[in-house]
Amino acid sequence: MAKVKCAWFDFASCEGCQIELTNYGEPFVELLQHIEIVEFREVMTEKTEAPIDVAFIEGSFTRESDRAKLERIRDRAAVVVAYGSCATCGGINALKNHTDDYKQEVYGADADKPHLDSTKALPISAAIKVDYEVKGCPMDKDEFLGIVQQLVHGTAKVYVPSYPVCVECKRRGTVCRFDEGDYCLGPIAQAGCGAPCPADGIPCEACRGMVQDANQKSMEKVLMENGKLPERWAKQKTRMFTANFREDA
Ligand code: SF4
Ligand code: SF4
Ligand code: SF4
After folding, report:
1. What is the Å distance from ligand 3's center to 17 Cα?
2. CB of 20 closer than 8 Å to CB of 138
3. For residues 21 and 8, what is the distance between their CA atoms, to the nearest angstrom?
4. What are φ and ψ of residue 140, in 5° steps?
5. Which of 28, 71, 126, 148: disulfide with 122, CB 3.0–4.6 Å?
6. What is the enclosing helix (H) or strand (E) of 82?
7. Over the stretch 166-208, which tens digit does the pLDDT of each residue have?
8. Which fold has domain 4-152?
């Protein structure tokens, strides 16, 4: 059986999802028996303009000048997989969507340099059709591997739970962060990760995005009243990974 030709591309991101993948070890090495990597900047220098079976895209769409690049990838790829929060919901980059002076705050005197020119951070699906998404910051390696394994055999079916992280957290019997005097975004966070953060004693930050019809306003209130967060922090927290889901974002 011919190997599946795969290429990796990155846009506005920290490249942490690529690192996550290369750190996967044995399962990734086994996968190499079934896929041929034809482009992957993090691990090789070769590039290709030929048709590809699967394009994996990391990072958010934040420059209009990237649209043509993304369209070219879409034209060449039979399947497009966006992976990581940056690519699937804008991710942490979308924090800048709430402020006009982020460039001055971050880059100071260099703020007007042309390479820093960008607009809102949006998911890749805002520019091109995306066939599959792997959520999380960084992306969930097992979910990623599951999709790739299925694609090697044809098409993939992805199950996205409709419930929040709290359900998975309760299932594993973790003591609630709020009971520990902490805050947590589990009630509005999209499940699927198995709630590892509260189990490790840290709050869920909703890195996979929010459940449909999440009540952000109520979440903000709970963060202030039960989590003891100041109003500004409560607002920032509820839109940290979810800027593009909010009507007031
Ligand atoms: S999703 Fe997180 S780890 Fe992945 S590229 Fe974006 S910021 Fe980095
Ligand atoms: S720790 Fe967070 S995810 Fe777990 S039950 Fe409490 S609010 Fe929900
Ligand atoms: S518990 Fe929350 S922050 Fe942690 S991986 Fe799951 S969605 Fe992301």
Report:
1. 15
2. yes
3. 11
4. -80, 115
5. 126
6. strand 77-83
7. 999 999 999 999 999 999 999 999 999 999 999 999 999 999 9
8. Rossmann fold (3.40.50)
